[in-house]
Design brief:
Length: about 90
């Protein structure tokens, strides 16, 4: 599989390509911007999963939101505040 198609696949579902948010941080083939984009997608997916769990619609996937937020904070400390959303969907304004 070509690296670009692997990245494209990861953009759609980071958890399908990477075992953990830390694995994204460790991938030396990715730029900081690419890592942050993947982590933001994983954050959105994790927030949706939390909402689904509350509504009884989750399929037993592990909740990785905390791990994702920690990885974002390690990669871009100034962006960590943007991840602290007042709702599970990430919105607040």
């Amino acid at each position: 599989m070509k690296e670009s198609s692997n990245y494209d696949k990861a953009l759609r579902d980071p958890a399908a390509v990477y075992a953990s948010p830390a694995a994204i941080l460790a991938d030396s083939r990715l730029s900081t911007a690419q890592k942050l984009k993947l982590l933001r997608q994983w954050e959105a997916d994790a927030r949706e999963l939390e909402v689904a769990e509350e509504e009884g619609m989750a399929d037993g996937e592990p909740d990785r939101l905390g791990d994702v937020l920690l990885a974002i904070a390690q990669l871009a400390p100034g962006d960590a505040k943007h991840s602290e959303a007042p709702t599970k969907h990430g919105g607040g304004h």
